[in-house]
Amino acid sequence: MSELNATAAALLGLLHDGPKTGGQLVAAAGERFGAFFSVTRSQVYRELPVLAQAGLLKLGKQGPRSSQQYLITASGKKAFRTWLTTKPGPDHLRSPLILRLVHASSLSAKQRATLVSTAKGVYGSQQDAYRAAVKAAEDPYTKAVAEFALAHSKAVLKLLDSIPTT
Question: Residue 87 region, left (φ>0) first, then alpha (ψ -120 to 50), else beta?
Answer without folding.
Answer: beta
